[in-house]
Design a protein that fits this description.
Elements lengths: L2 H18 L10 E6 L7 H16 L3 E6 L5 H12 L5 H25 L4 E4 L6 E3 L8 E4 L2 H8 L3 E5 L2 E3 L5 E3 L5 H11 L4 E6 L20 E3 H12 L4 H9 L4 E5 L7 E4 L12 E5 L2 E10 L4 H11 L4 E7 L8 E9 L3 H15 L3 E5 L2 E7 L9 H11 L6 E5 L2 E7 L3 H12 L6
Parallel strand pairs: 1-2, 1-9, 2-6, 3-6, 9-11, 10-12
Antiparallel strand pairs: 4-5, 7-8, 11-12, 13-18, 14-16, 14-17, 15-16, 18-20, 19-20
Helix pairs in contact: 2-4, 3-4, 6-8, 7-8, 9-10, 11-12
The structure holds aspartic acid and magnesium ion (MG).
Magnesium ion binds next to loops.
C-alpha cells in the first residue's frame, strides 16, 4: 500500500464514521428551504452563525435546503473587476464570473456545517438541476430537476445550493438578475414542495414604511403577494420582484425574517378576505426617479405613441404618465409629464431630443430632485376616501404634490426630494395613527 492510498483509505474511513453518527431518519418533521442573503453571510463569523441556525433546524429532525447569496459586496466587486478589463464585458463570460460569488459561499457554508458535525453538501445551481433560458444576466428558470437534491435529502444531508444561477440546456452558466437568490429559494421551494420557505435577511420583515425614515413603522405579520410586489418594485427593496411574482404564480407561501434573531417575520401569501379590512398595508418611497415634461406637445393622435415608442425602443421604462390639455391652448397643445429611473434620465433626454422636431413639442423640461411615495393596500378596492386622506395629510403639512397616479391597490404621488422624508412621515401618521409617538 502506498502512502497515497493509505491516506485515501483514512479519509474514507473518517467520512464514513462522521456519517454514521447521523443515521438516516426516514421520518422527518418538515422540508424547509432557507435563503440567506449577502449580509447574513458577509464574513466567516456570520457564516458560522448561519450554520449554527441551520444545524438547529436539522437537529430538530427537519430536512433543510439552504440557498445562499454571494458574501455582501462580492458581486459588485466582481462586476467592477470585469469593467476594469473591458467596458462592456461579454454577457456569457460575465455570468461565468458572477456565479463564482455564490459558489464561494456554498463551499464555506458546507465547511461550517461540517465543523458542527452536520453532514452537508454544496451544489451549484446547475448541479441542483436548475435549467434556464439563454438570456445571460437575466435568465428565466425553465425547469428544475430536483432528483439530486432529493437523493441527498433522503440521505439526511443538509443541501446547500448556490443562489442566483442555473445553466442552459447545453450547460452554459447563467444568472437570474440581481437579487436572484431569492428566486432560487422560491423556485426550489416550489419544485421540492417544501413545507416552509424562509427568506433570511438583515431586516426583521416587511414594515409599514422604511424604519430608517419612519422610526415608529410597524412590522407586518402578513402581506399579500400583490401588496408585496407593489412595495418591492416601488423601493421597499426587501426582495427581488421577480421572485415574488414567481411565488404568486406557484402559490409558494414564504416568510421574510431576520437572520440575527429569532423573532417571527412577515408571511407573504395569497390575499385573504380579512386582509381587505386594512386599507393601507404599507407606504414605500422611491428616490430613484426623475421627471420629464414635454412642453406644448401637439394635441393630436400619434404624439404620445411616437414618444413612448422611441423610449421603448431604447429600453427606457416609463412609470407615471400624466397629460393635461387645457382650454387655454384651445386644445391644440398639451403638456405631457412622466417619470423614468434616474440613471436612465440622460439617455431618455437624448432619445427625446432626437424626435423633438418630428413630434413637434416645444421644449423638454427635466427634474431629478423628486421622490415617489406610494400607499399600497388591497383594502383600497373596497374603501373610499383614501385619496382624500392622503392629500389632506400633505396639505396639512404644506407639502405640494407634483404628480398623482392611481391603480386598484395603490396611489402614488411625486413630491420634491427635500420634502420626501417628511411627506412619508406625515402620510404614515395619517394612515397608522396608533403608531404615532
Ligand atoms: N449575489 C447576487 C446579487 O448581489 C444575487 C443575490 O444576492 O441574490 O445580486
Ligand atoms: Mg440580495
Amino acid at each position: 500500500m502506498t502512502i497515497h492510498s493509505i491516506f485515501i483509505t483514512i479519509l474514507f474511513l473518517s467520512v464514513g464514521r462522521a456519517h454514521n453518527n447521523f443515521p438516516s431518519r426516514s421520518i422527518y418533521k418538515m422540508l424547509v428551504v432557507q435563503k440567506y442573503g449577502g449580509t447574513s453571510v458577509a464574513n466567516p463569523e456570520r457564516i458560522k452563525h448561519v450554520a449554527s441556525r441551520v444545524a438547529e433546524y436539522w437537529e430538530k429532525g427537519n430536512k433543510v435546503v439552504v440557498v445562499v447569496s454571494a458574501m455582501s459586496g462580492v458581486t459588485d466587486s466582481l462586476i467592477k473587476l470585469a469593467k476594469d478589463i473591458i467596458p462592456t464585458p461579454n454577457r456569457r463570460e460575465m455570468d461565468v464570473l458572477l456565479a463564482t460569488g455564490e459558489q464561494t459561499t456554498i463551499a464555506l457554508m458546507a465547511m461550517a456545517l461540517h465543523s458542527l458535525g452536520v453532514p452537508a453538501v454544496s451544489l451549484t445551481g446547475p448541479q441542483a438541476g436548475i435549467v434556464t433560458d439563454r438570456s445571460h444576466s437575466t435568465a428565466k428558470i425553465r425547469n428544475i430537476t430536483p432528483s439530486r437534491m432529493r437523493k441527498y435529502l433522503a440521505e439526511d444531508y443538509v443541501v446547500i445550493v448556490a443562489g442566483f444561477q442555473g445553466n442552459t440546456e447545453i450547460g452554459d452558466i447563467t444568472t437570474l438578475g440581481r437579487g436572484g437568490s431569492d428566486l432560487t429559494a422560491i423556485a426550489l421551494a416550489a419544485a421540492l414542495k417544501a413545507d416552509l420557505c424562509q427568506i433570511y435577511t438583515d431586516v426583521e420583515g416587511v414594515y409599514t414604511a422604511d424604519p430608517r425614515v419612519v422610526p415608529n413603522a410597524k412590522k407586518l405579520d402578513e402581506i399579500s403577494y400583490d401588496e408585496m410586489l407593489e412595495l418591492s418594485s416601488l423601493g421597499a427593496k426587501v426582495m427581488q420582484s421577480r421572485s415574488v411574482e414567481f411565488a404568486k404564480k406557484f402559490e409558494v407561501i414564504f416568510e421574510v425574517r431576520s437572520s440575527m434573531n429569532n423573532k417571527p417575520g412577515t408571511i407573504v401569501k395569497e390575499e385573504t378576505k380579512s386582509m381587505e379590512d386594512v386599507v393601507v398595508r404599507g407606504i414605500s418611497i422611491d428616490k430613484n426617479q426623475a421627471k420629464i415634461t414635454l412642453v406644448r406637445m401637439p394635441d393630436k393622435p400619434g404624439s404620445a405613441a411616437r414618444t413612448f415608442k422611441a423610449l421603448g425602443a431604447a429600453s427606457i421604462n416609463v412609470d407615471m404618465i400624466i397629460q393635461n390639455n387645457s382650454p387655454e391652448t384651445q386644445n391644440t397643445a398639451t403638456d405631457i409629464s412622466f417619470t423614468v429611473d434616474k440613471p436612465l434620465l440622460k439617455r431618455a433626454i437624448d432619445v427625446l431630443a432626437d424626435i423633438k422636431s418630428s413630434t413637434g413639442f416645444a421644449e423638454i423640461a427635466q427634474d431629478d430632485h423628486i421622490a415617489k411615495i406610494s400607499i399600497v393596500g388591497v383594502g383600497m378596492k373596497s374603501h373610499s376616501g383614501v385619496a382624500a386622506m392622503l392629500f389632506g395629510a400633505l396639505a396639512d403639512a404644506g407639502i405640494n404634490i407634483e404628480m398623482i397616479s392611481t391603480s386598484e391597490i395603490k396611489i402614488s404621488i411625486i413630491v420634491n426630494m427635500d420634502k420626501a422624508d417628511e411627506a412619508l412621515r406625515v402620510i404614515h401618521a395619517a394612515f397608522f395613527p396608533d403608531t404615532k409617538k
